[in-house]
Amino acid sequence: MLGLILTILVVGAIAGFVARLLVPGRQDMSIVATIGLGIVGSLVGGFLGYLLFGKDAGDGFLQPAGIIGSILGAVIALVIWQMTQRRSSAHV
């Protein structure tokens, strides 16, 4: 159980940091928020991977495709977050 939690945190951190590198613009996020972004990205990427390919965690948690899916999911989540931030700051 502890190994699973550590794996989720490490993959979340990697996915979050890579997503922040790939998405242009300034993101005012703490390290904890970046890890959270990566974890959300892993969930989004895993859901999309399941919908597209029918694979799930039963096939193994640490796979190259899973890490790439986590990064892509984190990029999607970051772009949506940036769009909501711009929209909310424009209405103030």
UniProtKB/TrEMBL annotation:
> Which ranges does the record mark as transmembrane?
6-23, 30-53, 65-84
The main location class comes to membrane
Report the InterPro entries cross-referenced here: Transgly_assoc
Output the PANTHER family linked to this UniProt entry: UPF0410 PROTEIN YMGE
Query: Which Gene Ontology terms of cellular component type are present?
Result: plasma membrane
State its location(s): Cell membrane
Which keywords does UniProt give here? Answer: Cell membrane, Membrane, Transmembrane, Transmembrane helix
Q: Which family does it belong to?
A: Belongs to the UPF0410 family.
> What name does this protein carry?
Uncharacterized membrane protein YeaQ/YmgE, transglycosylase-associated protein family
Membrane-protein topology: Multi-pass membrane protein
The opening ranks of the lineage are: Bacteria, Bacillati, Actinomycetota, Actinomycetes, Propionibacteriales
Protein species of origin: Nocardioides exalbidus
